[in-house]
Structure formats: structure tokens, C-alpha cells
Amino acid sequence: MNHTDSEVRRQDTMCVNESQLQHRWYHNIKYLVVGVLFGIVFVKAEIISWFRIQEMFRFQSFHMYGIIGSAVIVGMLSVWLIRKFNIRTIYGEPITFTPKTFNKGQIYGGLLFGLGWGLTGACPGPLFVQIGTGATVVAVVLLSAIAGTWLYGKLRDNLPH
Amino acid sequence: MEWLKQPWPWYIAGPLVGLTVPVLLILGNKHFGISANLRHACAMCFPSDIKFFKYDYKKEFWNLFFVIGAFGGGIVASLWLANPQPIEVNASLVAELAGYGINDYSSMVPQQLYNWDYLLSAKGLIMMVGGGFLVGFGSRYAGGCTSGHSIMGLSTLQWPSLVATISFMAGGFLMANVLLPLILG
């Protein structure tokens, strides 16, 4: 893997592929399966519901706070266990974490994202799930989100970070 | 099967969402983060010689498989696990939304807002095109969305992710309580 490629991928992103292994495409099917289960949970717990997000931002229900809070606790415990016992991937690779540095984008971008979340009632994950449930017009929201991402990439060097 | 069709409580759903973090790590050292896919879509389809989009997106195909799966999960859940009852929400929200003419709770998204006809109205454009744009622009500017920062970032105790999460919530509070009533009203 070339070094600059990795640096560009890491730029302003929380989530990069940390694996050094090369696999055939069908190895990715396991992520498709995880995605299906994730999508089902998002529908059944009404996480993809515009109404539930409106409730959350008005402090009218504990539901979404309970979901995010318990997800974070389970995530923290799992990461702690992975680190403590040096758990490896199913391919035997070590599991690695990249520390994130603070920049003002996390505030400015975070506020803009929050405005969009409050308006559409969906963060990026639910957009894909909502389309699956038959809300086809959400495809426009998704395309607009891709356009927003593209414009960020275009303007990146001129934005305060 | 009947209990599966009921809405799942937070204490079942939250831990399952949290388990996505270790599952992706153990399956292949992959970091949970969905908004990155929007960037990969740009890198794949319109890199336009922008440095931010010039990287080997093929390494990130796993994440595209994940969201295609999530889309499939939406299909599966609505075909076989759908709750036939309308969504139940707080009575004061119901009263507020009734004031904007929103009273159809039969679907996850309000039918009266999320339809192709409404898309072509000024309010529909603001909500769907404007809202989507803010989600995409903001999540990349912040370096991640709810999954990358609020779940993955907080799980790995990264304080910049806490800053991002607080900003997400602040933006959402402002939109839902101040701006949305002006837009829908």
C-alpha cells in the first residue's frame, strides 16, 4: 500500500479500512450480512423514523438516548476487551486504532450535520435503510448528501479547520 | 414471530447497534463509519481531480457492501417484520405536527412530507435536497457522522468525537425546535 494513498484516505474521516490484507471480492459478503442485520435493527427500533428523531431533539422520549447510550457502552466495553486480550481478526491480523486529532471542522461540520439531521430525521445510515423500506424519494436525499460531500471535498482547502 | 414484529425496545436495539463495532473489527479490522461511503461514492464516480477524492476506494468496498446490506435489511424488515400499527410518539409531538398538517404515522417517514410530489414544492426542496446536502457536507466536514463519531469514536474514547457529537446534538436541537417550525409552519 502506498503511503500517500493512506494519508489521503485518513483525511477528515473517522473510519478507514485498517486491514493490510488483499482479499477476493466475495470476502466482503460478510459485511453485507452484518449490514442486513444492522438495517433490520434500525427499522425495528424505529431509529430510521423521522418522528423518533423529532422526539429525541425535543426531549420527549428516552428511546433514542437509550439506544445511543447503550450502543456506546457496549462499544466501549468491546474495544476495552479487544485491547486487554489483544484479540485479533478472524484472519489473525492485529486490531488497530487510530487516534483522531481535534480540528474546528468537528464543531462547524458537526453543527451543519446536526441541522441536516434535525431536518431530514436521518443520518447517513438510516438513509440507506429508509430507501429499502420503500421510501424511494429518500434516494434524492442521499444523492444530495453525496453532492454535499463532493462540495466539501472541493472547498476543503478554503474552509476553516 | 409476533414479538419480532413489535417495535424493539432500546435495551435490545442499542446493544445490538453497539456490537457492530467489535464485529467489524474482528471480521477484518474495519472501523464502523457510514458517511465515509458518501466520500467513496465521490471518489468512484466524480473524483474531478480533487485531491480529497483521489485514493484507492477499492480498499473501502467492504463499507459499500455494508450499506447495500443495510438497504437490504430495510427491505427484509418491511416485507416480513413490519409492525402493522402506526408509530407511537409523544402526545405533544403529535399535537405540534398536527399543526403543520402531519398526521399520518403509518410509515417510518411522514408520508405527507416524503413523497415525490412534495419534493417539487419549496418546503420539500428545503427538507430533502437542503437537508441531505447538510448531512453530506456536515458529516464530511466533521470527519464522520453518528456512526463514526458518536458510536465508534466514543467507543474508542476519542475526545474530538465527543466534541463532534455535542455539535451534532446542538445543530439538531436548533433545527427541530427553532427552524423546523418556521419551515413547516
Taking the sheet with the most strands of chain A, its summary is: none
Spans where pLDDT lies below 50 across 5 or more residues of chain B: none
Number of extended strands of chain A: 0
The pLDDT mean of chain B sits at: 95
Structural class of chain B: mainly alpha
Structural class of chain A: mainly alpha
Describe this entry's structure for a reader.
- The complex is a heterodimer of chains A (161) and B (185).
- Helix content of chain A is 60%, strand content 0%.
- With 161 residues, chain A is an all-alpha fold.
- In chain A, helix 2 (29-44) packs across helix 6 (124-132) and helix 6 runs antiparallel to helix 7 (138-155).
- The two termini of chain A are 28 Å apart.
- The model of chain A has no long low-confidence stretch (mean pLDDT 92).
- With 185 residues, chain B is mainly alpha-helical.
- Chain B has helices at residues 2-5, 10-28, 36-45, 61-80, 91-98, 116-119, 122-142, 146-155, 159-184.
- At the A-B interface, helix 1, helix 2, helix 3, helix 4 and helix 5 of A face helix 2, helix 3, helix 4, helix 5 and helix 6 of B.
Per-chain topology:
The complex is a heterodimer of chains A (161) and B (185).
Chain A: H1 3-10, H2 29-44, H3 50-57, H4 63-84, H5 105-120, H6 124-132, H7 138-155
Chain B: H1 2-5, H2 10-28, H3 36-45, H4 61-80, H5 91-98, H6 116-119, H7 122-142, H8 146-155, H9 159-184
Helix pairs in contact in B: 8-9
Describe the structure using short key phrases.
heterodimer, A: 161 residues, mainly alpha, 7 helices, 60% helix, B: 185 residues, 9 helices, 66% helix, 0% strand, globular
Summarize it.
Chain A is mainly alpha-helical. Chain A is built from seven helices and no strands.
